[in-house]
Amino acid sequence: MIQIDDVVISLDVIREKFLCDLKACKGECCVEGDAGAPVELEEVAKLEEVLPVIWDDLSPEAQKVIDEQGVVYTDRDGDLVTSLVNGKDCVFTCYDETGCCFCAIEKAYRAGKVDFYKPVSCHLYPIRVGDYGPYKGVNYHRWSVCKAAVLLGEKENLPVYKFLKEPLIRKFGEAWYQELEEAVVELKERNLL
User: Fold this and answer.
1) Is residue 23 part of a domain?
2) Are residues 120 and 75 in the same domain?
3) Which regions of 12-126 does DSSP assign to beta strands (E)?
């Protein structure tokens, strides 16, 4: 592990390879799991703000869930997470004609309709950020639905932290990411990677 400021980073984030392969997985990470995506408290207002823009892209079932319980709920671990449809799909999912799942928020962002990308936890996946008192832990989350992403990442030799440069900067800042890159160079020079 390495530490930058109050953030402890697992070496798996540096060593492991990853590159999303949406054609292979069809966006399964937005559908599978035991809870919705983690949401930061300040993101709830953003989720509610984008609703009118993305509403027509959401399924009638998702609209009903949002009407009844809102965009988030507290899961069994006490974490704030996106609401789910049928205990499975994130309420913000939408599908194309091939059955591929997309995030309606990200779709609107890419079309220039909103200024919120999506919850940072989604943007960071397969990294999960944990709160450990005065420290945050940055860990690589392995999940069988992402097997194709691991294979593509290995083929392209793309480490997790490079694949997730943009969301890591979004979460921790440009200077922090620069320090991470410098730490990786130093670890390589010392043959510790």
Assistant:
1) no
2) yes
3) 72-74, 80-82, 84-85, 89-90, 93-95, 101-103
Whether residues 1 and 63 fall in one domain: no
Which range of residues forms the domain containing residue 154? 1-18+134-193
Three-state secondary-structure class, residue 64: helix
Q: State mean pLDDT over 152-168.
A: 97
Tell me the mean pLDDT in the region 118-129.
94
Predicted confidence (pLDDT) at residue 78 exceeds the cutoff of 80: yes
Alpha carbon distance 139, 12 (integer Å): 7
Using the 8-state DSSP alphabet, how is residue 111 labeled?
T
Q: Are residues 33 and 115 in the same domain?
A: yes
Share of the chain above pLDDT 70, in %: 99
Q: What ranges in 39-117 are assigned the alpha helix state H?
A: 41-54, 60-69, 104-110
Whole-prediction pTM: 0.89
Q: Which long-range contacts (CB under 8 A, 24 or more apart) does 48-51 make?
A: 49/114, 49/116, 50/105, 50/108, 50/114, 50/116
Number of domains making up the chain: 2
Q: Do 11 and 1 touch, CB atoms closer than 8 A?
A: yes
Residues 92 and 144 in one domain: no
